[in-house]
Amino acid sequence: MAELLDDDEVSSRIPDGWEQEGDEIVRVYEFEDYLRGVSFAQSVGEVAEEEFHHPTIVIRYEEVEVRLTSHEEGGITDKDVRLAGMFDDEF
Fold first, then answer.
1. CA 62 to CA 64: how far, in whole Å?
2. Which whole number is the average pLDDT over 3-17?
3. In 3D, which of 59, 55, 82 has the Cα closest to residue 69?
4. Which keywords are on file for this protein (predicted)?
5. How far is CA 20 from CA 9, 15, 54, 84, in A?
6. Which of 55, 63, 72, 78 is deepest in the core (most CB within 10 A)?
7. Residue 51 in contact with residue 45, Cβ under 8 Å?
8. Domain limits at 70?
9. Is residue 2 in some structural domain?
10. What is the CATH number of the domain that holds 33?
């Protein structure tokens, strides 16, 4: 089981563009059109599947919202922060 990060650890370690909302970290990625967002969401899904750590992904017209938390641990862990960086690399 991964160790939960406290709020100070989260704020100092999450990548730029990500925000903490309760027990999740969240980022909204903006795109010029819908299909680019869909393609990005697919890339995020593929990374998540490889890592076996699945975010909530919400696709809107020109944006994709990604939310990460470690459900088993009940909050944010190193795994969430690491995946946030990996998703940014896909962007």
1. 7
2. 96
3. 55
4. Lyase
5. 11, 11, 17, 12
6. 55
7. no
8. 7-90
9. no
10. 3.30.1360.20
| 67, β-bridge pairs | 26, 56
Indicate the residue type of 86.
M
Asked whether the whole model's pTM tops 0.70, one would answer yes
Q: Helix, strand, coil % (nearest 5) of the chain?
A: 40, 25, 30
Say how far residue 45 (Cα) sits from the centre of its chain: 10
| pLDDT level of residue 2 (50, 70, 90 thresholds) | confident
Say if CB 87 and CB 16 are below 8 A apart.
no
Q: What is the pLDDT of residues 47-87, one digit of tens each?
A: 999 999 999 999 999 999 999 999 989 999 999 999 999 99
C-alpha 40/C-alpha 42 separation (Å) is 5
Q: Residue 18 has which token pair?
A: 């990500």
DSSP 10-23: HHHHSPTT-EEETT
